[in-house]
């Protein structure tokens, strides 16, 4: 799964407008398509930024953002939200891990709900509420 | 997958499902299962906070909801019912587990059987 995670963050698979449709998309392509939807859930993305938010697996959500600073240097940050039995652990390189709570927890849950509803419709063509395939 | 036997009783053969949607409040909560099997739906809905996701439908005892989309109004109602600082992981864990399971299910379906993106 770690390999998949790395490829997702560094890969260049086209989605939406440029997706090469095959009869059976790969798991990577599906998650890539989801991540583009996820990256747009939080409003305007500043010029020069690239953002992804996606469900990596049943217990892991990922926020990835990259941008160029004033000197043109590439920067990026990856945040993992790991669902454990006792809470959601926020994991960032070089920072102290902690279980999110309060407003941060509410915001993440809201984002996940929006993600699920849009991904269900736009990627899997299912009604997010019933799971039934959409007919239109 | 939970199955309704009447308005107040339902059975869980094994662990909670991952492909049945629309019943965020029925997932992996032994407490909820016990309540549902021993109380009427109104009492269950009253005591289980996620019932607000489905508002009146849950109160009406329709534990398995398969017709109504999750509207923004329901989301607003859900979050409005919780003080932001009071929303806990226990409140949302069933929902998170459900979403994770359903995405997993959908991905496998498409990878194995193929469907358009």
Please describe what this structure looks like.
The complex is a heterodimer of chains A (136) and B (117). Chain A is of the alpha+beta class. Chain A has one domain. Helix content of chain A is 32%, strand content 26%. Chain A is built from three helices and five strands, in the order ααβββββα. Chain B has one domain (3-69, 79-113). Helix content of chain B is 47%, strand content 3%. Chain B has five helices and two strands, in the order ββααααα. Chain B has a two-stranded antiparallel ribbon. The interface between A and B is large, with 46 and 40 residues.
Question: Which spans of chain B have pLDDT < 50 for at least 5 consecutive residues?
Answer: 1-41, 43-85
How many β-strand runs of chain A? Answer: 5
Major sheet summary line of chain A: 5 strands, antiparallel
Structural class of chain A: alpha+beta
How much strand content do the residues of chain B show?
under 5%
Percent in helix of chain A:
25-40%
Structure summary, number of beta strands of chain B: 2
Helix tally of chain A?
Answer: 3
| Tally of domains of chain B | 1
Tally of domains of chain A: 1
């Amino acid at each position: 799964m770690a390999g998949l995670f790395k490829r997702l963050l560094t890969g260049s698979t086209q989605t939406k407008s440029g997706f090469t449709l095959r009869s059976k998309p790969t798991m990577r392509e599906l998650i890539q398509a989801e991540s583009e939807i996820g990256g747009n859930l939080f409003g305007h993305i500043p010029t020069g930024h690239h953002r992804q938010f996606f469900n990596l697996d049943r217990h892991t959500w990922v926020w990835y953002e990259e941008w160029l600073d004033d000197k043109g240097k590439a920067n990026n940050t990856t945040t993992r939200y790991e669902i454990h039995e006792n809470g959601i652990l926020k994991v960032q390189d070089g920072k102290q891990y902690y279980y999110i709570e309060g407003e941060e927890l509410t915001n993440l849950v809201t984002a996940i709900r929006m993600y699920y509803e849009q991904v269900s419709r736009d990627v899997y063509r299912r009604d997010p509420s019933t799971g039934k395939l959409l007919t239109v | 997958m939970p199955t309704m036997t009447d308005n107040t009783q339902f059975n869980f053969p094994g662990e909670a499902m991952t492909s049945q949607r629309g019943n965020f409040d029925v997932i992996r909560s032994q407490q909820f299962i016990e309540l549902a099997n021993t109380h009427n739906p109104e009492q269950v809905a009253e005591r289980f906070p996620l019932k607000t996701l489905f508002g009146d439908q849950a109160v009406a005892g329709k534990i398995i909801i398969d017709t109504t989309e999750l509207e923004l109004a329901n989301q607003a109602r859900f979050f409005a019912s919780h003080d932001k600082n009071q929303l806990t992981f226990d409140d949302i864990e069933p929902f998170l587990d459900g979403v994770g399971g359903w995405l997993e299910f959908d991905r496998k379906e498409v990878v194995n059987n193929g469907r358009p993106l």
